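Render Glutathione hydrolase proenzyme in 3D.
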Amino acid sequence: MRFISCVVAALLALPATAQDAADAVAPEAATQGQFEAISPEVGKALSAKAAGRPVAAQEWMVAAANPHAVQAGADVLRAGGTAADALVAVQTVLGLVEPQSSGLGGGAFLVWYDAASGNVTTLDAREAAPLAATPRLFQDEDGAPLKFFDAVVGGRSVGVPGTPALLETLHEKWGRLEWPSLLQPAITLAEGGFAVSPRLAGLVERDADRLSRFAETAAYFLPEGAPLQAGTTLTNPAYAATLRKMASDGARVFYARGEGAIGSDIVATVQNAPGNPGVLSEWDLALYQVIERPAVCASYRDHDVCGMGPPSSGALAVGQTLGILNQFDLATLGPDDPQSWRLIGDASRLAFADRGRYVADTDFVPVPVQGMVDPAYLAGRAALLFGDGALESVSPGAPEFEHALLWADDEALELPSTSHISIVDSFGNVASMTTTIENAFGSRLMTNGFLLNNELTDFSFRSHRDGVPIANRVEPGKRPRSSMAPTIVLRDGRPVLAIGSPGGSRIIPYVASAIIAHIDWGMNVQQAVALPHAVNRFGTYDLEEGTKMEAMAPELEAMGFTTGVRDLNSGLHAISIGANLQGGADPRREGIALGQ
């Protein structure tokens, strides 16, 4: 199978280029778990997804990556909770049943539409580099970049987790229900057990060698030395104990120096990781803060597409892609015309060129945010696409900026695993949150029932190129660049779509294409998230295996593109907001949408 051969190749050596590296480890394998026993409404939602129909509702809706988590969020919304309340329940259950993708040891970006004020804001809970980190963190003694998994597995790659602080912050700002009640669904499931899904079992089997490196991780995922089997009832009493501490004392049990046993355990796990210790300290945890930032919005047709700005590249790259395409009539061309995909592919390449040069944590480096989404600048970039063939090459543009721009191009890798949650509550609030521990199973280090992230490997392993600094280099306290693109689309100031996806750097074209499908091609949200993928970031046009996109390869190649056929395993979860609510869940994964 292509997935297994790719994983074996990735274990042998780090590929030479960012394109090759991103292709060396395929996204998580698609499996469809059997969750009908959870509730009748879950069974109906699974049937709707299988039939390609959106789930419709009038009052509220939640769409996420696992039916257990969606059910927990739906119960909170049904009890009168807000989208913020539901996010707490959904995330803590996801960290249990989908631990390879997100959890308390990771970070997240939230885009929030507040119905009372009509404002869109964002919360940055990205993991941060320890104060003891240096630009040479991922280099050997000769200054050469480490091989990818040599950097990932162990303590070196672990950044300060942001998810616990985010859950507490969003509940304090926008929650209504009691905090302990929101953690109870995950506690109950962790103590009573849940059936391991085929998807989780398959991922454990494929990663067994790395999961076996550390005793606590191996004991959980490889009991008696064998990978977890699908259908096995799995309990996690350590995770339940962690949530009970959070329920009584809040997120401080992760961050308070000398007071939080969980934080102390995180530091000890990182610093004592056999073979690859890290430099995370209790001071790093104590200093961590969730940062509220203004949303970054770009115009597309008569909509405003709003998302997370730096340190995420998501809103900028999605916004640039769509802003460039604003100059072309994709609605008339339609989804089956290769010219649509020529334009989409090269617009994406141009956005990725800017992303690779300019985007990093704005608390450390200046980023031309407004210049990058300025309509005049994007119209100039669009002029490059007025021919009939693929661009022979792309290079970063020169967006208007008040600072001198002298950065070398980045080559950081960003591989899946991640998860996305979209929620609309009965009060009109909208939440779009993408959450991650970076690579599948993160650093492979586990403590207190949850995995720790490997987020620091989203930094560039190099600090300079040809004497020119790289914006996304490692620096103490800095947050690595991300491709996560939680998005809320508005029309006339009102939200009409919440959407996002996992998928490493492919998140950006996944989200952009789904928005195009919904706005330009009139697809409902289930059709939009199920649309066959064609993704071009760095030159090669990836076409989704087993879909009609495969047949487009000859025409794209005649235009000058290099193509490749592969699994493109997104995890899009979307809610459209109009006369009613409609929810869509990516058929490539096991998630659903529920509403009332």
